[in-house]
Amino acid sequence: xxxxxxxxxxxxxxxxxxxxxxxxxxxxxxxxxxxxxxxxxxxxxxxxxxxxxxxxxxxxxxxxxxxxxxxxxxxxxxxxxxxxxxxxxxxxxxxxxxxxxxxxxxxxxxxxxxxxxxxxxxxxxxxxxxxxxxxxxxxxxxxxxxxxxxxxxxxxxxxxxxxxxxxxxxxxxxxxxxxxxxxxxxxxxxxxxxxxxxxxxxxxxxxxxxxxxxxxxxxxxxxxxxxxxxxxxxxxxxxxxxxxxxxxxxxxxxxxxxxxxxxxxxxxxxxxxxxxxxxxxxxxxxxxxxxxxxxxxxxxxxxxxxxxxxxxxxxxxxxxx
Amino acid sequence: xxxxxxxxxxxxxxxxxxxxxxxxxxxxxxxxxxxxxxxxxxxxxxxxxxxxxxxxxxxxxxxxxxxxxxxxxxxxxxxxxxxxxxxxxxxxxxxxxxxxxxxxxxxxxxxxxxxxxxxxxxxxxxxxxxxxxxxxxxxxxxxxxxxxxxxxxxxxxxxxxxxxxxxxxxxxxxxxxxxxxxxxxxxxxxxxxxxxxxxxxxxxxxxxxxxxxxxxxxxxxxxxxxxxxxxxxxxxxxxxxxxxxxxxxxxxxxxxxxxxxxxxxxxxxxxxxxxxxxxxxxxxxxxxxxxxxxxxxxxxxxxxxxxxxxxxxxxxxxxxx
Amino acid sequence: xxxxxxxxxxxxxxxxxxxxxxxxxxxxxxxxxxxxxxxxxxxxxxxxxxxxxxxxxxxxxxxxxxxxxxxxxxxxxxxxxxxxxxxxxxxxxxxxxxxxxxxxxxxxxxxxxxxxxxxxxxxxxxxxxxxxxxxxxxxxxxxxxxxxxxxxxxxxxxxxxxxxxxxxxxxxxxxxxxxxxxxxxxxxxxxxxxxxxxxxxxxxxxxxxxxxxxxxxxxxxxxxxxxxxxxxxxxxxxxxxxxxxxxxxxxxxxxxxxxxxxxxxxxxxxxxxxxxxxxxxxxxxxxxxxxxxxxxxxxxxxxxxxxxxxxxxxxxxxxxx
Amino acid sequence: xxxxxxxxxxxxxxxxxxxxxxxxxxxxxxxxxxxxxxxxxxxxxxxxxxxxxxxxxxxxxxxxxxxxxxxxxxxxxxxxxxxxxxxxxxxxxxxxxxxxxxxxxxxxxxxxxxxxxxxxxxxxxxxxxxxxxxxxxxxxxxxxxxxxxxxxxxxxxxxxxxxxxxxxxxxxxxxxxxxxxxxxxxxxxxxxxxxxxxxxxxxxxxxxxxxxxxxxxxxxxxxxxxxxxxxxxxxxxxxxxxxxxxxxxxxxxxxxxxxxxxxxxxxxxxxxxxxxxxxxxxxxxxxxxxxxxxxxxxxxxxxxxxxxxxxxxxxxxxxxx
Amino acid sequence: xxxxxxxxxxxxxxxxxxxxxxxxxxxxxxxxxxxxxxxxxxxxxxxxxxxxxxxxxxxxxxxxxxxxxxxxxxxxxxxxxxxxxxxxxxxxxxxxxxxxxxxxxxxxxxxxxxxxxxxxxxxxxxxxxxxxxxxxxxxxxxxxxxxxxxxxxxxxxxxxxxxxxxxxxxxxxxxxxxxxxxxxxxxxxxxxxxxxxxxxxxxxxxxxxxxxxxxxxxxxxxxxxxxxxxxxxxxxxxxxxxxxxxxxxxxxxxxxxxxxxxxxxxxxxxxxxxxxxxxxxxxxxxxxxxxxxxxxxxxxxxxxxxxxxxxxxxxxxxxxx
Amino acid sequence: xxxxxxxxxxxxxxxxxxxxxxxxxxxxxxxxxxxxxxxxxxxxxxxxxxxxxxxxxxxxxxxxxxxxxxxxxxxxxxxxxxxxxxxxxxxxxxxxxxxxxxxxxxxxxxxxxxxxxxxxxxxxxxxxxxxxxxxxxxxxxxxxxxxxxxxxxxxxxxxxxxxxxxxxxxxxxxxxxxxxxxxxxxxxxxxxxxxxxxxxxxxxxxxxxxxxxxxxxxxxxxxxxxxxxxxxxxxxxxxxxxxxxxxxxxxxxxxxxxxxxxxxxxxxxxxxxxxxxxxxxxxxxxxxxxxxxxxxxxxxxxxxxxxxxxxxxxxxxxxxx
Lengths: 321, 321, 321, 321, 321, 321
What we know:
The first copy, chain A, has ten helices and twelve strands. In chain A, strands 2-6-3-7-12-11-8-9-10 form a nine-stranded parallel sheet, sandwiched between helices. Chain A has a two-stranded antiparallel ribbon with strand order 4-5. The first copy, chain A, has a single domain (22-315), classed as Ureohydrolase domain (Arginase, Chain A, 3-Layer(aba) Sandwich). Chain A is of the alpha/beta class. Chains in contact: A-B, A-C, A-E, A-F, B-C, B-D, B-E, C-D, C-F, D-E, D-F, E-F.
């Protein structure tokens, strides 16, 4: 056959031979053994209290992530040798929300059974997927500690609307999937939570760092303290990022935006620090709604959360048998 | 008390003493006997196959409607003497979609039990609310004929996603709530429906007018034929308008937009003609998604559907005991 | 009557029994004695030099405010017991701008006559409403000190366009409604004011803190100094917030946006600090234009200005006879 | 000096030697005798009942117009030899709306005194400029007939808001600037006008063609009838185009949009037909709000109104002494 | 391995077992013999005179096309049995535009050499790709007739800017790739072309149907006449659709939009009629700019152009050896 | 002639007699001797790897700049006496990108030959114009040092796409136009550059300050060190600002946005500090794409870069013979 030098796959983008992009590392999974980081999408947002298009975030975060370089010039670390599996998305039921949530749980648990050294990066979806995600994670990993970056406690009662994006940590605590003493909430914001829910987390022994704490203490110190506490009491640590922890100017595409939030650079620093710790075995990012974002800014922030997590893991000397 | 001549209710708009607006006729319902037209919202769109903000349409349609004059200069008919009750919205469950649909059914049925001469105008929401709406309507009214303006048959199977916005007429036919012979579909569009579903409606004796029929036959003739047929076989006629029957240039805010659709003026003519008929006892408008619309254009079209329906009723000499 | 458990007022939102929102505290005023905070809208922006939709801000700020919780987790203060009256809007004349401004003055003065312990929160509108607002306030309260957060002096001459959004402090100074020595301008920005107007405020003894001052001195110190000075020379202090004092990235919906502005957190800190002071008896927010904003971000900032003001008042032990 | 072949005026656009654009014909006026068409802007929209950015339309219409070719392929008419003066804009007062309206009147009248053969094309602005424009025109020209394309009568009472964009024809009729028998309203729309105002125009002998008339009679016939009537009773004819006469899908950038309006092609046909008539001596276009338009579509329609008017004038053999 | 029933490929969409979508027919090409329709993208728009993002149209048109059903209810024709190859995109050089154009020519010619029965559907890109596309097509097919739907002649001189989106038919005529007598231009619009270029096409014997012709003659008649003429003088017919032939209200996403254009239904009727003819062997769609479109409306129109072309081919009994 | 007091040039804006705006200083150049600052536009962005509308930035930056006051209240410096020439734009070839780049080079060099004391402010366009700009500058000025604010090294190989916006510093280094030791890159961002390109600049002796450096060292210190080094080794210093050095929240209109970038205030401080230095003889701003910006925020930042540069020059006592 005559060569067709100028015919390429539809929608290809420019290739520079001297640049390795994250998109070059990420491979569609075809069932082989998972030994390291594996992305999985949980595109559910019908469970949200307010209208949300967070179901589109797995797509936009993947796209944003793919375009960045593998090289951290700040740490002179290159991820170019990694292979990252993209496991795909959990399929969601059109009209049965609890069934959709259960699919997240079952899929994560099942994957861990076959691939115990899998390090999941879960792309929500809204915060309701946190309960099934962590439930699956906990059943595979044992006692779990959670470091949650969030403007909100997310411990709403389940009577007034069922298992929504406002309830995941209520479900986790009530079901004893996690112990309140093993939960650290970072970035809780003024006038964005009710007193009864603050009382609830206090009563469960949850550690709460408000934005005032974040402004007045260094992120490194907050993370150091948190890890020191958790490493004694849990088997594994899971990091949950509700993107609305970030200030509305920097993460304009979250459903519940507002001023007075965290700076992205502080979050990135926290995440790379956490990633470095060998007990940190999972990361999730939720509440990014691309349909109300500006130029996928919030998905770009999410991509940098993942990049900083991977940088931390590389610094921490991640190896998988 | 000293008078405060310039203090008015928040968000009031300009009042011209010589203009009666629809907003002046529409009164929030407080439980009294309903004798004529009553608006009711069914703000459900979590049941949609694709992401939809149609849950916001009851609000935007009400707002658009309120701003128009009560006076039809074309027919020299003034609705200024009408009183229209706004019954409010059916409350939707946050995470249980079938429960939400059932609430639509129960609320409509209950209202008819207490207020048999109610003439409902149901504001969706997505097309999934058509099944519970018409089910409630049918239980109150007896044998029902339906004239459906829609680009799609909406007879999808229920196995692949449950009772969604693609299935309402399947549910109505399978449950024998309506008889296929009493269903008229107008505006069905090219390359927007599958052959199996066309076969399905043919097998159920449904009357189908495609956009080709609409382009080549006058709307008046199509409606005349339809009414003549239905008035012999049913007790009451319900008009269902999926706004995506209109061309995308004229109704840009529907989830499933495309070219080749109906002209608004043809729809208005059909609706006022239908409204005139004494057996036509209900109207619904679905699939308007204000979150993707341009300047609420599609809600404005919806408002004119209602206005033309009322004009028809006035022409038809509507009276309620 | 048969109960209709699922029928609710149109456009209702989700209710969580364990959450008190600001919207639960705010009541439409019906003429009773006003003893504490009362919101009043001044929806005027035809007076703006450049095209402005600030007339819509009373609506969007109210909406943003209503959605936030009453609970400050940072100060563990709950406003849940407050009652806040919403007095409504001053009605504006369609074509007579000075008449509209006068209505603001007359309404505020009249309200104070009947309700001397009213603590007004005035929602503009553009900055032109500052002159009639403070004039009414001053006639009720005596010698007034003003702390003005603004990128601009707003002392333009009145010959070149009449009483616009560029002139309010000129009018206040020229009419001796306030004394220059009792005016503090905070956040004045580089390349956003002319030398003659800087000279003008200097000549009137106005205290000016530029953004350079804000960057190099703590907000607490600036406020402390300002209050110490004013508490000796005035009877009452009024806080005026032109939202364009904030950086364009954080308040994108002001007519005159630009870089190099104040951080929202600094403004919130200043406002709660000021609110705490017993002599601070009024707050206004102007120059929020929702028609050019992104996701009502700027109205959300305005809502937090109000929340921080109320928090300050609670900390300060606000009581009304 | 060394040549700088590649340096051109800032913001220049591509030049094709074989294309004459309207922008090539239009010259900034420098006070010389005006003998033919002269553009003049009246950028006033603070007089609008609802928020309007129509003050920006003179700019966007000029820009749209400049980009079109001078050649009508449909009539094989080339305007390439015309010279069109751009007289500039009437300056508007920042805070005195009636003063602004008066400036329109005075400027137009003054220009006619010096330049009696001027053929004005007035670019609004909102419809309130119609009263001063036509008043100036009438004082210069004698008895005036007006053909008004509009969805609305625009005869609101002046008590409820002063001389706004809803009142111009009321003012013209009340002041006897024009006689009701010499006014033709074309495109009046259903549910967009009140009965009292319909009665008012009927009582003044105004000729009203609703959209129903437009749909059922050819535009040529309507125009022929109108001209035949007016040419007997007036000295000069003025054409007023409120762009909201066009359907919202085709003119999305008008403040008061809605479905059921006129097709642009019908308007163009009417305008070129009217332009051909020697008694037609003025054209105005109002109610284009570029701030809510999509891609300046509505300004492009306005540009084509002007182009068709000029084509008509060329067909009619326009000459000026 | 344990089954993972809920894990699916990332970004999958809902599957209804009873619906066949175009996306199910279109297969990524892997080098096998091409026997029927093959899509190919030419994502070039740096060649445009005005800023254009038409390079993104191959992606958005493919996406729009994939979502439509294979079934034409108007003709009761189902394309479900077709296989359509997606050959991918011609890769474009970052900084050498003429090289990019040449790659289009070479790729098309090369493909025809190997696959002489290929029926190309070329997705631009801007109109500059028409010259290399048709040049490649002509070298493979012999004497070519072209039916061009376009608001513009596109015969600009090449001196003033090189081979741009304004010049393709000049290049085709000058290079004698096609004969003026074999070119039919349909939809040429008023005030959108210069007299010299109208003269140019007249001098070359091009058949020109303006929008006036389109409004006054049925599309079927225009197409019939055109085909009758061409079938005598050429070996093969190529259909070129510049989407700006459509009215701006219906195709808002073209770079050069304006009022007074063609209705989509007329275009679809023309295209299916042309598709039916056995000599019609190629189709291209150019000048769709998704970056300025509203909800991919214009790409949806493009998808329907392709669907109607395929329907025509099915009606015409397309077979390939 | 009768005076026409209210007729002004089209699109004029409000004039306040007490305000001098930058637009009052900037004069369209008419060929006279250039002695100080001269603006020149290089509206090229077809050379960009990804789609870019940076060609529109010269227009939007000029517009933003014109609206700001000449007065720096922070430094009590008034630029009101300056005259700034606007030389216009380099004309760009429609289809030959390298020709366009060459025109930038030739025009700048030619201007320097005639006007050696010209202090150019070059408004891109994309970063590809940096190579011809600095090449022209260097040929006029001798050994050049460059301080580049940029998220990226911009030293891509030229084989994979020619002289694009990713290659300018590669071209400058390879052609020995500048020496690596005389290049300082400030603001280089994590995961936005490849290791081979980091190695490349290291191998060429380029000084690199990453965002980590910027966060941990004061901008003043970085600039002081840079200037001290350069003033020994070069004849003249050129400042190049790729606006994507700024965080995406503050400069949302750059093609390659992302989180973790520089704060505008840091950039302004650096620029005014650099402007003060007598050897700094040129400034360019590139990679502002107004077509994807929000309210021209990024052009407003660019305008402040220029203002701070001028302020620095005034502080530095700029005089031209």
